[in-house]
Amino acid sequence: MAVCARLCGVGQSRRCRRRQRHGGQDQPVSDSDVDMDDEEDERIVGQKQAAGGCGGLDCQAAGSSGGPGDVCCEHASGCRPQGLLGRAITGPPNPQSLLDLPPELLVEIFSLLPGTALPTVALVCKQFKQILNTETIWRRRCAAEFGVNEDLRKMEVGGVSSRDFYVKLLHPYKGVLGLWQPDIGPYGGLLNVVVEGLFVVGWMYLPPHDPRVEDPMRRRPLFRITMSEDRKASVECMYGHKGPHKGDIQTVKKDEFSTKCNQTDHHRMPGGRQEEFRTWLEEEWGRTLEDIFHEHTQELILMKFIYTSQYDNCLTYRRIYLPPLLPTDLLRPGLFKGTYGSHGLEIVMLSFHGASARATKLTGDPNVPAGQLTLEVDLSRPVVLPDLERQRSIEELSRLVLGVHAEVQREGPAPAACPAGEGPLGVTGGNGAVGVASGGPPAGVPEGGAAGESSSEASGGAEASGASRGSRAPSPPESQPFILPLGVMARNEVYPRTCKKCFYGTGQIAGHGFTSPERTPGLFVLFDKDRFGFIWLELKSFSMYSRLTDRLGHAHAPDMECFEAMLRNMQSWTS
């Protein structure tokens, strides 16, 4: 008797069970019948039946009989071989090849193969090709490879099969999933392309409104890819305020693609450019132009609007990776939001390279553009903070940090890697270190960092510089009080009043158009695993950084070599 299983697409249709329920009559299909059949088809595989049934392929009772939907009988009467879906199977007791296996079992096997291998399986024989029309196989591949958690059966009722969804949408656009940086001159950006529901969506990530650095990120959809009524993938531009409209995506080369809007009139507003600017300003900064009194800030805002709006969502994107986590990292690397004075909040990527930590801009400004290094921290030169009273003195901070800076200039750069078995907070001698961090376990143990007040740490570093080289400084407390020196400007007065570690570092500054770039000394302050800060000594300014906590898939670098190559490419894009 032919195997009755809609799952495998072989033999009788799913109506056979319905005919049994209706006394052999072929009744019209109802929603309840479909749901009932689906529940039977999607039953947990391999589940054992009542006691006495073996469910094995090698156990077949002589003279047993029953329909294809029968379950294993009790052991006293003998039992028939059991399929993975709990149905009796009709294959031979000792199969010699895959062709001898029942269709239900082949469905389970094929569901474990990657989707890219299934077309080759379909070439084996007609039976395999028929079985590969099973929707269950493609639903599972959509879930396993792309994390699709939606009930795809609702889509199938609408005429689009799970196979079409995989073959015509998910697989062709697999290469655009992940993190990307748009080519918007010095401003850059952060795009995350994900499978969301029944769409592939490109989300532009925007920092929170200045100066609320600890607020969550904002998201704006730029495009989406969906299945059209004719069962083809179509690209829709989401830019503007008039809803989805026609767009296009082109893969330029590996790790690069471009988007194009085919109906840019959807981006225009009835009030013209003035209304577009007011709307953009409220979304970008959370305020009106009248609320911004600083003339220089107004000029920067207007410049950014004119520059970015000319693209009309016709952009080129280049792939970027999150940094890999290494055992000796001071804290978990990743993306952070930071305050940058009149430029507002920007996104940086913190990564570790031996005895140094680096922060690279993903979003930038006309002075230091996206893709450039903004901070470099020498983890071999930790510092210890003095008491709170001395931390308040900017003169004390300047004297200490500049003293360390002069020592660094004399000795040359710190080594690129730490000795085996020793983290960046190892023996101070030989690395030009001026002390030990203000507290916490050694850097070999991953620990969080916070953005906060670095002036206090700088003063501690100067004090540590007086320690004899080659000797190990006393271990500081787990955490100690911290306060910004008087005269240091901070966009956000709400910052942690304790810190864990402090290190000497440098920050990059430049003139408009990235002219005359130079590295200026400062103090890196680690608050906790999600926040750190940097005091720009020459600018008498403090930047606070807070971790971006959004989950970003398809984003981690394959290895450190690939990540460092990406950083070099990022710098060349905006140099």
Largest sheet: 8 strands, antiparallel, barrel
Shape: globular
Q: How do the strands of the widest beta sheet line up side by side? A: 1-2-3-4-5-6-7-8
The count of helical stretches stands at 14
**Beta-strand content estimate:** 15-25%
Backbone CA Rg: 31 Å
SSE class: alpha+beta
- N-end to C-end Cα span: 72 Å
Number of strands: 19
Fraction of residues in helices?
10-25%
Mean pLDDT: 76
Low-confidence segments: 1-87, 416-474
Please, could you describe this protein's structure?
- This protein has 575 residues and is of the alpha+beta class.
- The protein has 14 helices and 19 strands.
- Strands 1-2-3-4-5-6-7-8 form an 8-stranded antiparallel barrel. Strands 9-10-11-12-16-17-18-19 form an 8-stranded antiparallel beta barrel. The chain has a two-stranded antiparallel sheet with strand order 13-15.
- Mean pLDDT is 76; it is low at 1-87 and 416-474.
In short:
This protein is an alpha+beta fold and 575 residues long. 25% of the residues lie in helices and 22% in strands. The protein has helices at 15-21, 31-41, 103-111, 118-122, 126-131, 135-146, 152-157, 162-170, 272-285, 295-309, 388-391, 394-411, 455-465, 560-574, and strands at residues 178-182, 191-196, 199-206, 218-227, 233-237, 245-253, 256-261, 316-319, 334-339, 345-353, 356-361, 373-383, 480-481, 489-490, 498-499, 501-511, 515-528, 531-536, 541-547.
